[in-house]
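Before relying on records like the one below, remember that each one covers exactly one chain. Contacts with other chains, cofactors or solvent are not represented anywhere in the record.
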Amino acid sequence: MTAAASHLDKEVLETAKVCSLSVACTNLCLFATKNEQSYMIALDEIQRLTLRVEQMVADDESAKRARNYVLQASMKLKDSVTVNSKGSSKTVKHDGVKNRKCSKCF
């Protein structure tokens, strides 16, 4: 799997998750607005859950940064390999322009 395909798959998965959470939140909001008590409970729980998820994301980001720092410290930069050409060989261009002629005009 290429990096571009992997990145695209990740974006598709994240979009699907956003849609799923959106539907769940919409249903919660519809039921929570039916009376004052359910509204207050839902609002408190949403705020508590938001803080919890934000902390999880922040912890995950700091762990990723720490892992990347360790990986970068152990990596050494090397000189790149020089490549003369890629693909097919180059063709020689003709100085004169070829004019097409019919079979009678040689």
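The chain is about 65% helix and 0% strand.
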